[in-house]
Here is the input.
Amino acid sequence: MLRNLLLGAAALALVAAWTPASAQVALPDVELEGPMTQVRVYAKPRTEVGRSVIGEMKVLGATVKVLASALVHTPTASSTDTETATELLRGFTAQSDPMPGRTQGGFIGGTAIVIGESVDGIVYASDVFTDMFEHVVVGEATGRVDVDGSGVKKMTVNGMAIVRLTDPRMPAGRPINGFGLRIRPNSITPGTLVSAEGYFIRDQNTLYYHTLEADSAELFNTETTQVSIMRADCRVRGGGRDEIEVRGGTVNPANATVQIRIPDPTPNNPNRFTAVGLVQAVPDNTVNPPQGLYRADFRNLTIPGGVCPTRVRAVILATSPGALNQATATADMTGR
Here is the structure.
């Protein structure tokens, strides 16, 4: 998840040179990535420097105030609604229950990625993300694969145990393939190439996973049109130079035309989306059924309000050539 800081020392020096020492100046797009040592949730939102704040954190020793409008998320749970985002943030605190396999409360000690603005040395966060630790294993499925209606409960990869996370703060998603499309968990057999992401507990030799991918497994449904989103990024540069990039997969057809949409008005309208543009997937006919990958890379945009949306949607219209039905996928957007 490592990303480059957006403000270099030269840019900061330029701001300082032109700014009175007593002024409260917001430096945009400040980013922190590192250990989360403290998390506190306020009894009710507070107003600070004209901003509504729901809590505070220590990340890399820096003070971070979490905005009431912030996207608070893990790989598989997220919210921009103030009430539910507050509850998710409360689940990060030392006073909350430990995550499976851990003794420390919440996500304390795990890695946080924070994006926001700095005012007088305090970061006001518009985006707070944690995945505990970004531990990844790629290898061969070995031994028994224990499955149920929700996916893979437990398995081993080269002898290391992989256990499904069921905690609502970071629940495991359904198993997918390399196109981001749902697969049948009981088709993962010994010898299948598997990748899993989550956090590793050394004393248990166990990885608690939130994402599981098996490339040669069977699609869960081969008779419908489907689309996925595996990655989505936004960058506001201003001056008609904003960017949105979305990647994912398609099936039925493999070469589907995918429409990318963002909330309207941005950033957080949950019910209304407007189209940004179209992209065509590149088919891979070596898999059965044929599936495709798309990469939408839209540049020279003007995003309304100059704020990246926190959600993005990919749609294959029912009227699209080769489509059997309309297919939709919605995911979090990483914004800077």
The helical segments are 9-18, 82-90.
